[in-house]
Each structure stands twice: as C-alpha cells, then as structure tokens.
Design goal:
By secondary structure, the chain is mainly alpha-helical. The protein has one domain (23-126). It contains five helices and four strands. The protein has helices at residues 9-43, 52-55, 83-88, 103-110, 113-126; strands at 58-59, 63-65, 68-70, 73-74. The strands form two sheets. Strands 1-4 form a two-stranded antiparallel ribbon. A two-stranded antiparallel sheet has the order 2-3. A hairpin with a 2-residue loop joins strand 2 and strand 3 (68-70).
Length: 127
C-alpha cells in the first residue's frame, strides 16, 4: 500500500492554535485601527466654535468577547450637551465644519471595510 508523508503538520497545528488564541484580539486591533482612521477623517469635519466638540472625539479600546470584537467611538464628554444636535441638525450653519461629521466618514469607510480588516489581520499573522 502506498504511503504519503505530509510535511508541515506541526507548523499547521501551531498556526491554527495561534489563530484560535489570537483571532479575537487581532480582530479587535484591526477594528480599532479602522475606527482611528474614521475618527481622523471626522475631526476635519467637526464644526469648531471653542474646539471642545472636536477635542471630545475618542476611540475606546476594543471589547473582545467569544462572539467577536467591537470598538465604540464618537464625540461627547464635555460637549455631550450639544454633540448630537450639532451632528444631526442640517439647519445650523457653521463657519468651520459641517453636520454629520462622524456619520459621513463612517459611511464612506463602510465600502471596502471587510477587505481592509482582512488585510490587516493577515499582516498581523505574518509577523
């Protein structure tokens, strides 16, 4: 009976084990990086009066669960009383910035996000 020797089984096991142990944190890191890029684009669109609203933008560290990973980001803090109205009201005029300053870059980033996340995770596995 012919015999077949498969080489690299231990390496494959190591990669699969690593994927299992690190997939949540890696996904969290990739999502965090994506959120940071969105926030960066958003900051250029935030209406500025005193600068408090723009300065309140933040990206929280990833939350990792058995179901996956998530990242919360947005504006508020010291500007929480007016962040939502400034974001949502198209009737307000601003000398600097515009309404939907977070939604617009988020919606733009949605196109191709899956591919960018996959690419980031692949680069992390190669390291």
């Amino acid at each position: 009976m012919p015999r077949v020797a498969i080489e690299g089984v231990e390496k494959l096991r190591a990669v699969l084990s690593r994927m299992s142990n690190e997939s949540g944190p890696m996904l969290g890191k990739a999502i965090y990086q994506e959120a940071e890029e969105i926030m960066g684009r958003s900051r250029g669109l935030v209406p500025v009066d005193t600068g408090t609203l723009r300065a309140s933008g933040q990206v929280d560290l990833p939350t990792i669960t058995a179901q996956g990973a998530s990242v919360e980001f947005g504006y508020g803090g010291a500007a929480s009383d007016y962040a939502v109205p400034v974001h949502e009201r198209s009737d307000l005029t601003h000398t600097v910035g515009t309404w939907k300053f977070l939604e617009a870059p988020t919606m733009e980033a949605a196109h191709g996000m899956g591919a960018r996340l996959a690419s980031r995770i692949q680069r992390m596995f190669r390291r």
